[in-house]
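Appendix B. Chain record.
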Amino acid sequence: MAEKRWNVGDQLMAIFIWTAKNKQGVSQSGELEASNREIATAILRRKALLDVKVKKKPIEIILFPEKVDDKDISVFFRQLSTMINAGLPLVQCFELAERGAEKKAMIKLLNDVRMNLEGGNPLGETMRKFPDEFDRLTCALVEAGEQGGILDTILLRLCVYKEKALSLKAKIKSAMVYPVAILVVSFIVTSILMIFVIPIFSEMFADFGAELPMPTQIAMSISDVFVEFWYLIVAVPIALVAGVKALYNTPNGRYQLDKLLLSLPILGDVLRKASVARFCRTFSTLTAAGVPILEALDTVAETAGNVVIEKVILSSKDSISQGQTLTAPLEESKIFPLMVTQMISIGEQTGSLEDMLGKIADFYEEEVDTAVNNMQQLMEPVIMAFLGVVIGGLVISMYLPIFQMASIV
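Structure tokens predicted for this chain:
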């Protein structure tokens, strides 16, 4: 919603849409916050803009606001790299990208960045003002590219990194969502049977006068609990999810939950391999861009996605700052496989750490893909057997008395 806001001094502010031309005759447009149309026009004219046109932005209600995601940023970086390589000025690159963008959120972001660039701010410094769209890794790489005069090359590396990171994230999400979705569906189906279906059979069996089979009695007793305490059946899973989220928001709780996830039998192995791949890919991208190793490790730790891994990386940073090797803390953690620490050690000794980290990342990204496929193939029969036992057991227990009556007749 294009809102009106109160600024310091309790003066009502509004958003204005403007179009103008610079001294070279290039058309520009954007949004500006001011108390009235005359002040907005004066602000723009002070910037030496010509043919200024200003109108108040209409109020619009947006129920589901658009967001700029990593895919949008990756596509933009690829375009920006091509334009910079072609020799276009940075501000003009943003103007062209802004005209070609389709998402309103992306257009606004590009406009805001361009306005900062026109004010003389470097691109990397400007990006740090938008942490929701540009993470610390992106800002560090862009700053390194600006300093080294290889911004177009760095942007391409960022594209490759983000594309691989998105692919890895999708695989992990697939590994975690699939079993959870099956369990949730099975719980809902079981609850419906217990609350609505089995009570109908119970009323029918009440007139039999004969003793019911033990499985039927057990199913009916469980159904009575579901019917009587249905509100708990609904509230407990919701409260459990909310409690886990609240626990995860605390430092110690997040550490313990992340540690638990890494120690799980099958899923933990997938998450560990994904963490190793992410660590190596991020570290390799930063070192290739010429980011100092201590600063790179800070960024790698922040983007680790797991507090346990983050603490291990920070301990490696402390080890290097004390003149020791990177691999010692990684070996002591028992999280990074021996092959990984040995290859990193070889990379340190031979001065080819960047290449070695890239090879490790490639290997473990393939390992994650294989592990996710294997896990899904393994879980499918287990889940089907579980559903067969639960749902099938309920159905059979309800039909046993009917089978008994048929045999007697």
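Further analysis of this model is presented in Appendix C.
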